[in-house]
Write a structure and sequence with these properties.
By secondary structure, this protein is of the alpha/beta class. The chain has a single domain, classed as 3-Layer(aba) Sandwich (Rossmann fold), CATH 3.40.50. The protein has five helices and ten strands, in the order ββαβαβαβαβαββββ. The strands form two sheets. The chain has an eight-stranded mixed beta sheet, sandwiched between helices. Strands 1-2 form a two-stranded antiparallel sheet. Helix 4 packs parallel to helix 5. The N and C termini lie far apart (35 Å). The relative contact order is 0.15.
């Protein structure tokens, strides 16, 4: 099991456990995401899909997010997230869900959850983005932002299920794409 440091906020430099086989979001990419989001993180309700070690969600919590729900399918990822929640003392601000993203997103929709920020870092060979867009659009609050990390060659639509692409940034083999329920600049 490896380690990864948070890049900002109250837990800056705090080290997270990362299980083998999980591709965590690189520090330069996380910094760029949170520089782009600026004040949108403070007090926000966050969802991280395909959470892996939960690095992006923990970064959001460190930078003032109100709460975070993590969805992760792998047992190793889930155990790392739970251990990171305990080591950071965040159990009152976090919900950890193990399972398939589709069913778990449907459960959150039925439960009435709504989020200000939704992060997704699916495997690079993932090809069901349309399926995720339809659910994310039901889970975002008005003005909410959906941030998805994909392989830089991946082409995502400019509009999907009420979401509008507002920004795209590449970092070598990685691309971060931002969507909002309302068009506009970030």
């Amino acid at each position: 099991m490896g380690r990864l440091s948070l890049t900002g906020g109250e837990n800056k430099r705090k080290r997270l456990k990362v299980p083998k086989g999980i591709r965590p979001t690189r520090a330069i990419v996380k910094r760029s995401i949170f520089d782009t989001l600026r004040g949108a993180v403070e007090g926000s309700d966050v969802l991280e899909i395909f959470a892996g070690s939960g690095a992006v969600g923990f970064e959001a919590l460190s930078r003032g997010a109100h709460s975070c729900v993590f969805i992760e399918k792998s047992r190793d990822g889930l155990l790392a997230i739970i251990e990171n929640v305990k080591s950071m003392g965040l159990s009152d601000r976090v919900r950890v869900i193990r399972g398939d993203y589709g069913r778990k997103l449907n459960d959150l929709i039925k439960e009435g959850y709504r989020f200000d920020l939704i992060f997704a870092d699916p495997p690079y060979d993932f090809n069901a983005h349309t399926d995720v867009f339809s659910r994310v659009s039901q889970l975002l609050k008005p003005g909410g932002i959906y941030i998805v990390e994909v392989r830089s060659k991946t082409i995502l639509p400019d509009k999907a299920d009420g979401l509008v692409k507002v920004k795209e940034v590449s970092f070598g083999q990685t691309k971060i794409v931002y969507y909002s329920l309302l068009s506009g600049d970030l």
